[in-house]
Structure formats: structure tokens, C-alpha cells
Design brief:
Blueprint: E1 3-6, H1 16-25, E2 30-37, E3 44-45, H2 48-56, E4 61-67, H3 75-80, E5 85-89, H4 96-105, E6 109-114, E7 132-136, H5 151-162, E8 168-172, H6 177-185, E9 190-193, H7 202-209
Parallel strand pairs: 1-9, 2-4, 4-5, 5-6, 6-7, 7-8, 8-9
Antiparallel strand pairs: 2-3
């Protein structure tokens, strides 16, 4: 079992509050929110003001995924949104430890993101300070891609590196029911789901609910 995190990027932008309220009523308590700057990734989405305003209108906790260059210049504004979880790309800055420290100093959960082409070896200096690792199963910021099968082996490699540390593994990109199960079997505990969940298909939602277990959170979120 794992936590299923709906991805706001796939929601109906004209009815975001309705979408969030419906998901919360279905038992999903954490919303994955992509922040894109048009530089680190080609698209632009969800700025500071938007995230804060959306958060003020929902009961859900926020997991903000910063797909931005030089996150050290933006982290203060992200913290001001009230997001409970914030992750930054290890590829985006040489000052990742500084950003992680800022997140932790504000009592939030700090995560590091790995692109598909990034080796987990870069995690070693951060393993004693982070709360979760987000493994990208597609190239970030480019919708419509298929789940990269090698991600499953990468999850296992990350899990081995973590050892007995209390670090969760999150996976994001092109995920539907079967790939979600594979990720969970490989020891991922948080699964981000976008278009598969928001496809206005009650069957998809009900299938994902069989994998969703809020008790996985314990006292970490």
C-alpha cells in the first residue's frame, strides 16, 4: 500500500476547487503541485500566488515539486505558500543542500528529485537530511510521455541506498494502475497520478483507491 497523490497539473483548471474538494472527499489528502518556470522545463505552471490561493481554498496538504532553475532564489516564496512538502531537483542548482536546509528550518518536509538520466549516487551527501526522494518516471515538464520501465530498477537502487533511514520514495510521471503497483512493489510509498486519475473515469479512481493507504503517512506529513 502507498499514498496516491493526485497531480494538480492534470485537473480541470476551470474547476480546481471542485476537483480538490472531490478528491479530499474520496480520501486523498495530499495534492502534488508542479511549479514550472519555462527554463528548467519548457512549460510554465502554477506560480507562488496561484499555489497560495489554491491552498487557501482546500483542506488538502500540498506537495510542491519545484521544476525551476536556481531554486535557492525562489524557496522563500514557496515556503510562504504554506506547502507542507517541497522538493527540488538535484540537477537545478549546485546549492541543493542550502535549499534543503531552508525547507527543514521552516518545519516542512524536504525532498530531492531525480530526472530519469540522473544517477542515484548524487543522493549520498543528502541522505541524512532529506525526508523523501522523488524519482521521475518521465522527463519532467513534458506531458504525454510513457512511463519509463527502467524506473522500477531505479526505485530498488534508491531503496537500497536509503537503508534503514526513514526516507520515503515518491514516483511521478505517466503512472496508471499497473505501473503504480509495480512502483509500490519496488518499495515506493508515494505515487503521483495525473491524467489517469483525472480522466473522469470512476473506475480508474476506484482502482487507485485500492492502492491508497493514508496510514502510510504515520506522523511524517
Amino acid at each position: 500500500m502507498a499514498l496516491i497523490l493526485p497531480s494538480l497539473f492534470a485537473a480541470d483548471i476551470m474547476h480546481l476547487k471542485r476537483e480538490c474538494d472531490s478528491l479530499y472527499e474520496e480520501g486523498f489528502e495530499i495534492l502534488h503541485v508542479d511549479m514550472m518556470d519555462g527554463v528548467f522545463v519548457p512549460h510554465i505552471a502554477f506560480g507562488f500566488e496561484q499555489i497560495r490561493n489554491i491552498k487557501n481554498q482546500t483542506k488538502m496538504k500540498f506537495d510542491v515539486h519545484m521544476m525551476v532553475s536556481e531554486p535557492e532564489h525562489h524557496i522563500e516564496k514557496v515556503l510562504e505558500t504554506g506547502a507542507e512538502m517541497i522538493s527540488v531537483h538535484v540537477e537545478a542548482s549546485p546549492h541543493i543542500r542550502h535549499v534543503i536546509d531552508q525547507i527543514k528550518q521552516h518545519g516542512r518536509k524536504a525532498g530531492v528529485v531525480l530526472n530519469p538520466g540522473t544517477s542515484p549516487v548524487v543522493l549520498k551527501p543528502l541522505l541524512n537530511v532529506i525526508d523523501y526522494i522523488l524519482v521521475m518516471s518521465i522527463n519532467p515538464g513534458r506531458p504525454g510521455q510513457s512511463f519509463i520501465a527502467d524506473t522500477i530498477d531505479k526505485i530498488r537502487e534508491v531503496k537500497e541506498m536509503i537503508g534503514d533511514r526513514e526516507i520515503q520514495i515518491e514516483v511521478d510521471g505517466g503512472i496508471e494502475f499497473d505501473t503504480a503497483r509495480l512502483c509500490i512493489d519496488a518499495c515506493a510509498s508515494m505515487i503521483v497520478v495525473g491524467s489517469y486519475l483525472f480522466a473522469d473515469n470512476k473506475a480508474n479512481l476506484n482502482k487507485l483507491k485500492t492502492l491508497h493507504n493514508p496510514s502510510v503517512k504515520e506522523d511524517r506529513n
